[in-house]
Specification:
The protein has nine helices and no strands. The chain is an all-alpha fold. It has one domain (about 1-225). Helix content is about 75%, strand content about 0%.
Length: about 240
């Protein structure tokens, strides 16, 4: 009976982590295609906060879940007002400023928590099943998304110099591209942070990306049956 309950819980976690991956991909697509428009950015933020809420739900982080749920409700109301055209000129400017400033910083902070809670949940799981695999993939993608929007936020801080120097602050799509090429240490070199704190942040992302892969591989290997355990296992069917 306990195995059945554990199996159902694992299946639910697997499905939800799969949905997290889909939401991250959706957020990436919206950010890359429409991240430059006000409505596109608000919809993108909405999808991202729903993603955060889902992560906190599946990883059983109750206090964080309540916080994320409150943020989702706020953004739902704000996004609906923008999309439906219910805001006047001054109110629309305020909503846009919120999306480009404080809310974006809050989003980066919330997004930064998601890989942590996913990894904690995956580590607590016995063995390596599909739920653990999907959770690891989701955490890896969320690390790249977190850094991408941190780069966007740095470029929009008052008085900050252009993030990519002569290339300017970079669009949301460019920051996403730079983040994932840095995370995977691909390093095409077409986009380079002009100074700090962007350079230090990029280095930390590259190091974290490699450490994550090494740690994930270590967990997989540690849960593989060793030769001695296979030899000591009682034979069946005799």
């Amino acid at each position: 009976m306990e195995d059945g309950i554990a199996g159902r819980a694992g299946a639910r976690a697997e499905d939800r982590y799969g949905l997290v991956i889909l939401l991250v991909m959706l957020s990436y697509g919206i950010a890359a295609a429409y991240g430059g428009s006000d409505v596109g950015r608000m919809v993108m933020i909405l999808v991202q906060l729903v993603t955060v809420w889902l992560v906190f739900t599946v990883s059983e982080a109750r206090r964080a879940q309540r916080l994320a749920g409150g943020m989702v409700l706020i953004v739902l109301a704000l996004t609906a007002a923008v999309v439906l055209g219910g805001l006047s000129g001054t109110q629309a400017q305020w909503a846009t400023a919120l999306a480009e400033g404080p809310l974006l910083l809050v989003l980066v902070a919330l997004y930064a928590l998601t890989p942590v809670v996913i990894v904690g949940h995956v580590v607590r799981r016995p063995g390596v099943d599909r739920a653990a695999f999907y959770g690891g993939v989701a955490a890896y993608l969320l690390i790249g998304m977190t850094y991408a929007f941190a780069y966007v936020a740095l470029g929009e801080l008052p008085g900050s110099s252009p993030f990519f120097g002569a290339e300017g602050d970079g669009t949301t799509a460019q920051c996403l591209f730079f983040s994932f090429t840095t995370l995977t240490t691909t390093g095409y070199g077409d986009l380079v942070p002009a100074g700090n704190p962007g350079q230090s942040l990029a280095i930390s992302e590259a190091v974290l990306g490699q450490l994550f892969l090494v740690t994930a591989l270590g967990k997989i290997v540690s849960n593989l049956p060793s030769r001695s355990r296979r030899e000591d296992a009682p034979a069946t069917g005799e």
